[in-house]
């Protein structure tokens, strides 16, 4: 049975020194036009001592015209080269691997930053935050595939040891995989083979442009919890095909912005067995793990050393993915390995205003503020101060959303 302190060898030959993965969280530290800042470097210098053997960065866009939100990095911006090198170097001293998460949001690019989103098909998101998309042409699809490959090649040159493709939470890769969002009648839609083609071509293109030891991971949904959409059966088949292709690591998540409650795993969290085991998607992991050889990460719900250890001991996962605990404790990984009874102080954040709390913006905003504090060497806060964190971050995003549009005009 694996323990948190055991190493894990990937297909690439990469050895991860333990079974803890800091999962992706948007750092919200980039400039309006997608430039890396020194705060990114200082943040990962702190997290390099966190105890995690693998850190997945926040979203890096493969097309600066299509951002999933303000203040994210444009992976193909030439001026980012120098700071990307410094960012990649932060993990070297502690033998910590850092993989940028590559993403194209497709139609899930909010109107605060994008008035012209694209998608596999013209299927609007039922949310006022988004403008209805137009369908991609085949030439545009090929261009996006090339952008993923070019971004990975540049990141490898900068010193990163791998990338993670974001195929979850309703973004473009997930849109192509879903029969609800992908209603194309050409080679990119219709049958499962055609819907899988987009991510397969991205994977193969990255492999052709990077070295043998470079890692390619992917984050996929266990389901998008949407009628007529991406099902658990679809997800298992995707995992099996990615396994055959040779992907190095698969991370499991779920849902999309159209289903934010399920995206957090609360549907599964209602089950007593899931509450006891902490992890939201462990039952799905148990099913897929029996059918693939690729190491599996489950993210969502882990808060304690005991919960993570039990999940590893069950054999359902190979690594525990953790996000928010690292935003309030920059050494969370070290603490859970050294103390078998360690529990994260992460708890629901509430403003006291029901409408704001129901939107989950309070929690997202509060953790974003803590990440910023870590990047500036400040002590993190232990509780929210009313509605102020939400208002502050919402204003910052709104202001930078307008700046994004000015930059692109």
Task: Provide a quick synopsis of the model.
The protein has helices at 38-47, 81-89, 138-158, 172-177, 192-209, 232-245, 260-263, 266-269, 272-277, 282-289, 305-313, 324-328, 332-338, 354-358, 361-375, 388-408, and strands at 8-9, 15-16, 20-22, 54-61, 73-74, 97-103, 118-119, 134-135, 162-167, 215-221, 249-253, 296-299, 319-322. By secondary structure, the protein is α/β, with parallel strands linked by helices.
Continuous helix count: 16
Number of DSSP strand runs: 13
- Annotated CATH architecture: Alpha-Beta Barrel
Order of helices and strands: EEEHEEHEEEHEHHEHEHHHHEHEHHHHH
Averaged pLDDT: 89
Q: How large is the share of residues in beta strands?
A: 5-15%
- Rg: 20 Å
- At CATH level 3, the topology is TIM Barrel
Tally of structural domains: 1
Structural class: alpha/beta
- Helix coverage percent of residues? 25-40%
CATH class: Alpha Beta
Strand order of the largest sheet: 3-4-6-9-10-11-12-13
**Biggest beta-sheet profile:** 8 strands, parallel, barrel
Distance between the termini: 56 Å
* Low-confidence regions: 261-275
Give a topology summary.
Layout: E1 8-9, E2 15-16, E3 20-22, H1 38-47, E4 54-61, E5 73-74, H2 81-89, E6 97-103, E7 118-119, E8 134-135, H3 138-158, E9 162-167, H4 172-177, H5 192-209, E10 215-221, H6 232-245, E11 249-253, H7 260-263, H8 266-269, H9 272-277, H10 282-289, E12 296-299, H11 305-313, E13 319-322, H12 324-328, H13 332-338, H14 354-358, H15 361-375, H16 388-408
Parallel strand pairs: 3-4, 3-13, 4-5, 4-6, 6-9, 7-8, 9-10, 10-11, 11-12, 12-13
Antiparallel strand pairs: 1-2
Helix pairs in contact: 1-2, 1-15, 2-3, 3-5, 5-6, 15-16
């Amino acid at each position: 049975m694996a323990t948190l302190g055991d190493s894990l060898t990937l297909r690439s030959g990469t050895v991860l020194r333990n079974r803890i993965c800091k999962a992706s969280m948007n750092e919200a530290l980039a400039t309006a036009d997608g430039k890396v800042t020194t705060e990114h470097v200082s943040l990962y210098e702190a997290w390099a001592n966190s105890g995690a053997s693998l850190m997945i960065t926040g979203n890096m866009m493969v097309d600066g015209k299509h951002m999933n939100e303000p203040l994210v990095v444009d992976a193909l911006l030439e001026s980012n080269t120098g700071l990307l090198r410094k960012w990649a170097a932060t993990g070297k001293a502690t033998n910590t691997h850092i993989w940028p998460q590559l993403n194209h949001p497709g139609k899930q690019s909010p109107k605060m930053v994008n008035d012209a989103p694209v998608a596999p098909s013209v299927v609007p998101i039922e949310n006022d935050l988004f403008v209805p998309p137009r369908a991609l042409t085949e030439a545009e699809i090929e261009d996006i595939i090339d952008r993923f490959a070019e971004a990975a090649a540049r990141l490898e040159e900068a010193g990163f040891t791998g990338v993670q493709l974001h195929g979850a939470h309703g973004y473009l890769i997930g849109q192509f995989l879903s029969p609800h969002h992908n209603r194309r009648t050409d080679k990119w839609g219709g049958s499962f083979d055609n819907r899988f083609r987009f991510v397969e071509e991205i994977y193969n293109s990255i492999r052709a442009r990077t070295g043998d030891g470079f890692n390619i991971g992917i984050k996929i949904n266990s389901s998008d919890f949407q009628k007529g959409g991406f099902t658990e059966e679809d997800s298992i088949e995707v995992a099996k095909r990615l396994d055959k292709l040779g992907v190095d690591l698969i991370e499991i998540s779920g849902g999309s912005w159209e289903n934010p409650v399920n995206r957090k795993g609360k549907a599964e969290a209602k089950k007593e067995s899931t509450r006891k085991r902490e992890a939201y998607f462990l039952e799905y992991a148990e099913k897929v793990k029996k059918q693939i050889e690729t190491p599996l990460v489950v993210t969502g719900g882990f808060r304690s050393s005991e919960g993570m250890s039990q999940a590893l001991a069950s054999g359902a996962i190979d690594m525990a993915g953790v996000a928010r605990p690292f935003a309030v404790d920059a050494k969370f990984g070290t603490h859970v390995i050294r103390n078998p009874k360690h529990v994260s102080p992460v708890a629901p954040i509430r403003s006291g205003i029901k409408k704001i709390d129901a939107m989950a913006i309070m929690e997202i905003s509060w953790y974003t503020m803590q990440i910023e504090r870590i990047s500036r060497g400040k002590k993190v806060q232990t509780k929210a101060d009313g509605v102020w964190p939400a208002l502050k971050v919402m204003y910052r995003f709104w202001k930078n959303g307008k700046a994004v549009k000015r930059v692109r005009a």
